[in-house]
Amino acid sequence: MRKEIIINSTANEIRIAITEEGKLAELFVETPEKERMVGDIYVGKVAKVMAGIQAAFIDIGLQQDAFLHFSDIGNSLGQYNSMLNDEEVDTDEDDDESEQADERPQHAESDSPRNSSRKPRHQEPRKYEVNLTKGQEIIVQITKEPVGKKGVRVTSEVSLPGRFLVLLPFDGKVGISKKITSFKEKRRLRKLVRSILPATFGVIVRTNAENQDEKLFLQDLEQLLTTWKEIEKTVKSEQAPALLYKDMATTSSVIRDLFSDEINRVVLDNKKLYKEIKAYVNVFSPVMADKIEFYGKREPLFDALGIEKEIATTLARKVWLKSGGYIILDPTEAMMVVDVNSGRYAAKQEQELNSLRTNLEAAREICRQIRLRDLGGIIVIDFIDVEEEKNRKKIFDEMKKEFRRDRAKATILPLTDFCLMQITRQRIRQSIIHSFTEPCPVCGGSGMVQSKTTIMSNMERWLRRFRTESHEHRLILRAHPSMLEYLRDGGIFSRLTMMMIRFRVVITAEEDRTLMIDELHFISRKQDKDITQEFIN
User: Fold this and answer.
1) Which helix (H) or strand (E) holds 469?
2) Does pTM surpass 0.70?
3) What whole-number distance in Å separates Cα of residue 224 and Cα of residue 137?
4) Is the backbone peptide bond immediately before 300 cis, with ω within 30 degrees of 0?
5) Measuring CA to CA, how many Å separate 9 from each of 16, 273, 281, 295, 351?
6) Residue 126: predicted pLDDT
């Protein structure tokens, strides 16, 4: 499979696209307002310990306190255990467990502690014993960026990812990525690492290290150890809460973590960024330096490669399929709901076969959209009904096959009798749609506002309370122009006129474009002040 990393840079935004066979598969966006936070290390103070939910809230100086689950605390707060969420590892040379290495050194964190999926409801949650007190200082590392109203998630099991190694301070373990399958290579890497690793430190050897030279290992390890020593110095000089270590920006981290032999080329349109990345790769992977290209043509890079059009689908609620069917993606507070529709592909003959074909095509596109939008948490898919069990299994197998490309951990359940599929997917940062959009100031993100009829009914109820409790008869009404247009409709016997007659009050209407459509303000002429809140039930 041909894979490419395409990086477009402007003054206010950097966009990194990962394409597979020329089709957009993943997208990262970094702006000054939304910098990458995963991997940052802080010294914080325990703000609250809540044994009932097996968690503590840590003040690290951000707007919201960080969430620390008890399962993310090592055996000792002064010693850090192995970061198994970075890459699943072999810690025994004779281990024959399945290979499920996670290639993201982002302290990969799911919505459930220590697991990429939610635990079945019938399972008793494990109890963790910790010794945390309010006001206690603690070093933590961000594993998941804030999502909605939730703050960042952190762990006390600190690790530092490099190009070939992940340094585990105060942990003597040496782990090897399970994606390295050669027993001989595993033994070589383990022996090499143990010969150069200082006492009390541990490492995870990453997949990129396979068949690499000892010199590159030493460079990577020395850089990580130097970084850790600087963190130790900063701890002694800083007072909690404080930032101890800022991980690489998105662009640099993508090159560090994803630029491997599988990538055919990296294309950039920013000369400065091109030189920086070229210099980095020349040090750590000189044989791959020729894969880095600078794009200097007049036509925008993403336009030239057709990526701009594909990005538009990440903002669309409806995504069309080649067959004429389509999928609808609707976010809710607790989950993402995906609906599959046959559209123009619906046919009376061979209904079961047509439904299966549409579902299989939809399964491939849904997996792509999940990766592209970086959807996490619970995802429920409503496929078109198929009656035969073997067809449901084909859809299930297709989803599992497509998810093998996904670096995030996911749990996929078979289709129910109603052709519903449940998926839980690892969530590390907000969905990509949050990088391009913000909630509508009118509807608050719901997509709906009160009807003008409802607003007028609310106005009538306000006037009834006002006339019952007050002896005043003259008001000024300030409202959005479109609402006043509705109230004035009808000429002499307009809705506003009829209300004034009914409640025996004189209302002078004034337009205010700064107000929301459903926002009304009543001003007392006698008191010359806003009295709206005084008569709201």
Assistant:
1) helix 452-469
2) no
3) 24
4) no
5) 9, 8, 19, 11, 48
6) 63
